[in-house]
Amino acid sequence: MNHKYQDCVAVCPVEAFREMDTYLVIDPDECIDCGACVPECPVEAIFADTDVPDEEEEWIERNETEAADAPIAEGDSPVLGS
Question: 7-67: which CATH topology?
Fold first, then answer.
């Protein structure tokens, strides 16, 4: 059984995460590179585009192409300005 961790979705201030059937992608056109999601990812799967490990580089293109048609991931929105 696959599990889609969505802890990162809740802290994203711009709704950059897109939901696929079994995983999430980040829309690079929406992401503001704030880094809020990085420490929230329990499986350490989020990297700045300049720090992506060689074995994970295929995800750079997947994020770009798959995010274009995917729905915004649902999650509790962060409370800003508190």
Answer: Alpha-Beta Plaits (3.30.70)
Burial (CB < 10 A; 0-12, 13-18, 19+), residue 25, is buried
pTM score: 0.80
Angle, alpha carbons 7-17-67 (nearest 5°) = 150
Predicted confidence at residue 1, as pLDDT, reads 38
Q: What is the pLDDT of residues 43-81, one digit of tens each?
A: 899 998 889 999 999 988 988 898 888 999 886 544 443
Angle CA(70)–CA(74)–CA(79) in degrees, nearest 5?
130
Distance CA 18, CA 71 (A): 5
Q: Where are the domains of the chain?
A: 7-67
